[in-house]
Amino acid sequence: MKYSDHYDRSKVKVLELLMGDGWTIEPAGGSSGEAYLARAGEQVLFLKRNSSPFLAVLSAEGIVPKLLWTKRQANGDVITAQRWVDGRELTGGDMDNTRVAQLLSKIHSSSELLDMFMRIGNHARTPEATIAVLKEQQEQLPYITTSMAGALEELAGTSGEVQPPRLVVCHGDMNHNNWMFDANGDLYLVDWDNATVSDPALDLALILYEYIPREEWDGWLQGYGLSLTSHLLRRMRWQIISHLLDHAQQAMLTNRIKEAEFYKKQLEAVLDRDSLQI
Fold it and tell me: Which DSSP string do the residues of 217-262 spell out, in sequence order?
């Protein structure tokens, strides 16, 4: 048995002790490795260790499945239990659904979510702060490609043109697998581990560049409640470039070669793409 397997099993045992007799625990997958399903007869709960601290607000606003309870363990870990949603993840083709745009607009408009996020000590991801992080990353890399250098140069040279009109809580990972319909047709956005306070153009760009044909951007944004303007286009381009550059550099710093190559190719494609024409 590998050490990681032993460690995972020990975490399951801790949750089994927490839940008591009659409950079985199994990993639920996900990138964090901290999500589990707890089953007792017909009852199913979704458990997570050290989930987003503003999960209660997300639950109260109907953005994630209902939060049932929160328990702090002796070692400081916090376990949350949510109602298990019997439904399906969205596909890439579902992302043009107007309800996706409407729920994202609701999230970005939530003052309660923003207040909670700021009260727990999070800092805004402004263009200036983003550039500082990207520069620091590049200084630690053994090499950078021409496209990576060009991306940072473009970001630094245009930061004054992309100041957001407002800062909101952004989810930061718009992958279709994080969106789900339950059996009643209710829509949720889950997995808030990458949330940040930033320009709403961050989440918008992650959806539009990945899933929506360019000629349909205006219609999709109408469902969100925005018009497609030149300023919004500049901000979305800025956000997607910074996002891809950050992911490429982080992958290089941690020697995830295939992942780094994937993001570098995506970055090159965006840099070559004329996306500033309305």
Answer: HHHHHHHHT----HHHHHHHHHHHHHHHHHHHHHHHHTT-HHHHHH
Can you tell me the mean pLDDT for 115-138? Answer: 91
Q: How confident is the model at residue 3 (pLDDT cuts 50, 70, 90)?
A: very low
Cα(59)–Cα(235) distance, integer angstroms: 30
Task: Identify which of 158, 105, 165, 185 has the alpha carbon closest to the alpha carbon of residue 276.
Answer: 158
DSSP calls for 157-175: HHGGG---S--EEE-S---
Nearest residue to 99 (alpha-carbon basis) of 30, 186, 2: 186
pLDDT of residue 29: 67
What predicted TM-score, i.e. pTM, was given to this entire model?
A: 0.87
CA distance 24 to 201: 42
Residues 6+ apart with CB under 8 A from 196: 122, 125, 169, 170, 172, 202
Please check the confidence at residue 277 and state whether its pLDDT lies above 80.
Answer: no
Catalytic residues: 173
Q: What is the amino acid identity at position 210?
A: E
Nearest residue to 149 via CA among 269, 267, 254:
267
